[in-house]
Task: structure prediction
Amino acid sequence: MPGWLSSLRDLILEAGPGRRLMLALLVLAPLAALAAAYFWFNPPVYRVLYSQLSDRAGGEVITALEQFDIPYRLTPTDGSIEVPTDQLHAARYRLAARGLPKSDAEAQDEIDRAPRFGASSLQEQQRFQRALEIDLARSVQTLEAVELARVHLALPKVSPFLRDAPPATAAVLVRLRPGAKLDAEQVATIQTLVAASVPRLKRGEVQVLDPRGVLLGGAAPEMVQSQRLALEQDLARRALAVLTPWLGEDRVSVQVTAALEDSETRQTVEHVRNVVVAGEARPLEKTVRTTLVPEGRIQRLNAIVILGFDASADELRRAENMARQALGLLPSRGDMLSVYALPAAAPKPSAGLPGATPREPVSVPASQAHPASPPPAVAAPFALPPWSLAAAAAILLGFAAMVWLWLRRTPAAELEQGDFGEELEAVRNQVLANPRVTADVIKLWMRA
Result:
């Protein structure tokens, strides 16, 4: 044993209790300070265990962590539960073994699925609808971009006294993951998923919204509309391909309007055939037929064929038959076809001056024609409306009457009354005979 160790041992053995305590503190105090400094400068790293839990679900998780002796802390911003990084996966596995955390929908689901005795039919229907909403929400949450989803269904009660059952509607509220977005195809997928799971629910009746209240899936109707436009254009081309070789390209036009089914429907028909055996009617055969109507199926077609000439009744009938066969119209489906003959309007004659006679065309020899220079522009004659001629005549007659009265009252008038009356009558007759000349004279006076 080294000498300094022997001396240290003898010193401890010879020391009293107080000195021994001081020696122990001198040794342990630096070690404790080093450990405290290490943990101070190297705190344990915490990671989020679960975030955005309800108060009930968060309380259940915290109680389980305390039972597992797993340290935790709550973030001051949103109250998320954090645990040390080295215990994160162990905490999740142990909580999952207890079925935690449970969402409010799952907790309500457990309550609804609990056996109840004496429940009414309305309560059973509500429990069924609630269970269907929860299952649909879970299916929607399986999408990668969706963090949380809720589904609300409106299922009207079917009455045998109504010919057409009221349609069902649905609303899906989705909360997306940070940085995620839903495109038009994903929204259409959600609509199809919900519509295919609920009877009498069409995809167009399913609305998808985000937490801000913004309606998603605005492109889905555009997709349906583009499909409808493509079908209408294809049908119009088919009809034109049949009618154009007979009538000509510029003498026929076709317009088609299509209505499509916007969701997939299933129709089930049951037939029971009765056979009389020994005087009794007994059901012997039962036939069940299920028809699946796919989405995008033609519901009704309306077509119009316009012939650009004065067609006879025979030609109209022939064009109708050819267009009906080309479009594949079905009267049972309610399809309609109309054929009209609208001949082109004749060109209107050029308006000229009233009373003017048309001029004969003047032939110009080829040697005198100048092909490079355009014909000189001829100014259109000034045309006056008919009422302006009558107004001019009235003004002239009034002016002449005023002059005649003035001359009659003037004692020093040099003109004789009889002569002036004859001149006034001559002017009046001339105005009535040639109103256009009178109007030109008045127009010259006004310009002057």
